[in-house]
Amino acid sequence: MNSEQIIASLKELVAAGDVPGKVLTDAADLESYGKDWTRIYAPNPVAIVLPKTTEQVQALVRFANENRVALVPSGGRTGLSAGAVAASGEVVIAFDNMNQILDFSTSDRLVRCQAGVVTEQLQNFAEENGLYYPVDFASAGSSQLGGNISTNAGGIKVIRYGMSRDWVAGLKVVTGKGDILDLNKDLEKNNTGYDLRHLFIGAEGTLGFITEATMKLSRQPDNLTVLVLGLNDLGNTMDVLKTFQGGLDLTAYEFFSHQAMGHVLAHGQVPAPFETEAPYYALLEFEATSDQVMEDAMNLFEQCMENGWVLDGVISQSETQAQNLWQLRERISESIAPRTPYKNDISVVVSKVPGFLQEIDELVAEQYPDFEIIWFGHIGDGNLHLNILKPEDMAKEDFFEKCQQVNKWVFEIVEKYQGSVSAEHGVGMTKKPYLQYTRSEAEIAYLRGIKQVFDPNGIINPGKIFD
């Protein structure tokens, strides 16, 4: 089929039913929906389809199988691995119009959502009902639930609440073969063989499309309090973490470099936390449920000061101040975006972080002496974000080529420490050449086998994770 025939068929398929979907073909829409936050691959989709129902998605998948048309899922397009990029004439299936909260059970603390529900939308719904959805990150205002689940998104609360996987009670999916499956039926206990729900979580849309998800909610945290500390040395991040975890239940533990904070402060929207300059900073969050908890926190702070790990610090005295302190961390990605950063999202188990971080830092300093390096990340769960900023006088193509030359050395260190080349943004296309640094040949063979079972014709998000 040629492009015109494909577009005509797509329009007919989503016109059926009481709630018709849309097909977009304008150049601006193709550009917008055909990419994510990566800037490496140029988008080139044939069309954008915005379905309204699971049945329309099923019809689209069956059509794609019959005519060997490749489909790419698209959520909030906030990914950083090109997992939602349509660069080879695919049809994009975008879930922006499947954005309804369908059902809610107060007693079960379960909420059933369509895949296009925005993370912040679910967070606000939970709050309105006296509950809490804890999976949170800087893109919460635009990322969609289906995309979060497909990449097993983590974010800033993993140290306490875990990843997206931990909050999924059930899924409705359309497989690559065109079958509709209701997975787990929202049960807390269901020991009846393989839990296919967990295959779709983190699969980056390569097995089929998530159209609905039932999410668990939790109690609201009590008096979240933020402490920002200026650290004397990179290795002190672990000293401080160990000390505070010995006395408090942390809900978050983040770190960022002075260079990272400098970019945030340059925008003028957030003030410096204190006058003392430090090479690195840690942001801790905890529930200050009593005066005793606050006293314990201050004693731990004084202990870190006495040991020379901390140079200065500030603790929030109100919810507004806590939110402002969080901006020091959450605005980093936004503030460095104009510099076309080359991002590495890597992880190891927490106990290996100091040595791992030191080796990576020394390698990058040696290989990139003229590049600005920005460190930040969810260090409390072993996840580090290494960002290399493009010099203003260097072409994007030359910059990415230089960065890729060092990737191999960085990932050899990741492999040495038995870490992951992608902690939370998935493999997509950008990490595909490096999958073997985290997965064995035998594992990859099993992954390919699973893909073949669910998507035998290879029409669902082809070229992502592996070829």
UniProtKB/TrEMBL annotation:
Highest taxon in the source lineage: Bacteria
Alphabetized InterPro entries for the sequence: FAD-bd_oxidored_4_C, FAD-bd_PCMH, FAD-oxidored/transferase_4, Oxid_FAD_bind_N
Protein name, per record: FAD-binding oxidoreductase
Domain FAD-binding PCMH-type: 41-220
Keywords, alphabetical: FAD, Flavoprotein, Oxidoreductase
Required cofactor names: FAD
Organism, scientific name: Marinobacter salexigens
Record bears the keyword Secreted: no
